[in-house]
Amino acid sequence: xxxxxxxxxxxxxxxxxxxxxxxxxxxxxxxxxxxxxxxxxxxxxxxxxxxxxxxxxxxxxxxxxxxxxxxxxxxxxxxxxxxxxxxxxxxxxxxxxxxxxxxxxxxxxxxxxxxxxxxxxxxxxxxxxxxxxxxxxxxxxxxxxxxxxxxxxxxxxxxxxxxxxxxxxxxxxxxxxxxxxxxxxxxxxxxxxxxx
Length: 196
Hints:
Layout: H1 23-36, H2 41-46, H3 50-66, H4 71-85, H5 88-101, H6 105-113, H7 121-134, H8 140-149, H9 152-175
């Protein structure tokens, strides 16, 4: 999204551009754009507090590029959680990212439709832990299953990814962030969550 492209109806805050910011905010905008190649739609709504927007973005950047989680698994988990939470904005942005990362079409379709996706035992353990974390019900067995297949660091990163997706959904809901113009709603809401 180009700096001047802020179409889409506004939520509780306006989607800000670089030109809208005071000099102190421009630095945060430029850091986000430098790290990500652009300032994503949701972060434009957070730019009322530019340093906060940067720090939130930085956590997302770590989960995207600094964690030990393979891109394909991370994107599949984001889709599973987006379906589980009926999180339209996240799904609509990440569906193509998931495909580009190698998530098979049959997994994307199953998740979108609320059906159990065809996953191996390792991936299924991650989905179970992520969805349980989203619902604040992650138990020892859920955590230990991921540790058994990967390691403790990996299990912690799955939990933090889940917390970040829930955090982003809370922001979208509280700030009433809409899908931007030109981004279709790809997730049928109310279709149900995948079975763990």
